[in-house]
Amino acid sequence: MATTTTMNQMRAWRGWPIFSFGFRPFFFFGALDAALMIALWVPWYLGIIAIPSMFAPVSWHVHELLFGYVPAIIAGFMLTAVPNWTGRLPVVGWPLAGLFSLWLLARLVIAFSAGVSPALVYGVGLLFPLALTALFAREVIAGRNWRNLKVIVVLSLFTAAQIFFYYENSRYGSSLYAERAGIALVIMLIQIIGGRVVPSFTGNWLRKRKSEALPLPFGRYDRLVMVLSAIALIIWIILPALPMHTPAAGAVLILTGALNLIRQWRWRPLKTFGEPLVLILHLSFLPVGLGFIFAGLVSATGLSGAESAAIHCWTVGAIGGMTLAIMTRASRGHTGRPLTAPPATVFIYAMIMLALAARLAAAFQPAWTFTMIPVAGLGWTLAFAGFCLAYGPMLFSARR
């Protein structure tokens, strides 16, 4: 029933195809924003250019990744998935265009916010996440889809983290705890949603190949890992307030990382090398566990570079990689293309993994920083610009 009504609603829209389904504008312009964000931030960070924003370079970089790019991709994914979860009609046409306009307005205002009232900038920045969370809450409650209320809780907390970001930044000139909270909530969302789609898509592909070794179904072990992950992420958020060497906190984080790697191993990652669309899901989930381990090593041993490695495992590898994995797969499936990875898609995946490798190299070899950061920025920019070039035509055209 949900599929029929969704398709009827899509066909009823006679305007631009880009507003015929939620994933279209948010995936394309979210990717464009991600490419431009790093293409501008790296030379800004290196002192080559300046951006007329009220935020310092690092704060702007963090804000636009966590509270600009990530909400766009969440919106694209959820606006596509929620109608299937609830059986309700999708948001398309002018309502979708209006929601997208709130997101775009925030990007422009924040980029050119120097000299603008902070209250106005913060207010505009919060319009989109508040509208998005309210929309999803309405749909989930109206559809009585109670099992997905936890996603709404995470989104609400994510909006609260953005509010706290503005508070910290206005009072202290930085937003250390809000940044950590934002990253932690996205990683938790990846564990919730990725914990469904990675084994599901892996299992579907392995069944087509008549494989007998399939991913293990969601069970008690997965619940245990997710609960422990939530506890470990809370510890990581408050770590700056603790003594520099806190072995107990480090042990919890390292244990959580190891259990996440075991969880992923149960999904048969080594059997996915024949299909890049599936392999990239595993390559992008791997940094979740590695990030916990690196974060734990900071507290347990004080390992130099481990803090940066943890943050960039989670942001570049898990967030960047997993969002591209979902964006490419969903864009192909929902526009009537075959679920295969042509060379352009493989290039996108290779570039985001290059960005991760370069950023980790910069973390552990400080002497390489001013070489590896541009390499990481180039890899990231090429990955997202590549998505725009390869997938833009299908996102702007009618479904086949």
Question: Could you please describe the fold and organization of this structure?
Answer:
By secondary structure, this protein is mostly helical. The chain has two domains: 1-174, no CATH class; 211-400, no CATH class. 77% of the residues lie in helices and 0% in strands. It is built from 13 helices and no strands. Helix 3 packs antiparallel against helix 4 (93-111), helix 6 (149-172) packs antiparallel against helix 7 (176-208) and helix 12 runs antiparallel to helix 13 (369-395). The chain starts with a helix and ends in a 5-residue tail after the last helix. The mean pLDDT is 92.
- The helix/strand order is HHHHHHHHHHHHH
Distance between the termini: 21 Å
Report the total helices: 13
- Mean of all residue-level pLDDT scores: 92
C-alpha Rg (nearest Å): 20 Å
User: What structural class do helix, strand and pairing data support?
Assistant: mainly alpha
What portion of residues belong to β-strands?
under 5%
What number of domains? 2
- Overall shape: globular
Indicate the percent of residues in helices. Answer: over 70%
Low-confidence stretches: none
The main pleated sheet reads as: none
Number of strands: 0
